[in-house]
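User: quick one - fold this with iron/sulfur cluster bound?
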Amino acid sequence: MERKIGDLTVSIDRDLCIGSGNCVKIAPEVFVLDETSTTAFRDGELSCDRDRLIEACRVCPTNALRCVDDTGNTLAPEEG
Ligand code: SF4
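Assistant: Sure. Structure tokens for the protein plus iron/sulfur cluster:
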């Protein structure tokens, strides 16, 4: 699943999510753990401080979260 939030496109690979909750702690207005302890997007219009959203994607231990900006730059997961 994928959402556009500001200039960022965020996608969740739910098959990779292990339910650690790291992303939910940092950006609770965007991410929520569903009944299977798998991250999903919250319903409705999503907004979040840009840097915090990027950080929330970067802290995922399994790289289940991808964040790409309007120019195609991948901001999360971090490379290297
Ligand atoms: S940080 Fe990653 S593994 Fe943890 S709940 Fe979020 S998407 Fe799932």
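One thing worth noting: The domain at 2-74 is CATH 3.30.70.20 (Alpha-Beta Plaits).
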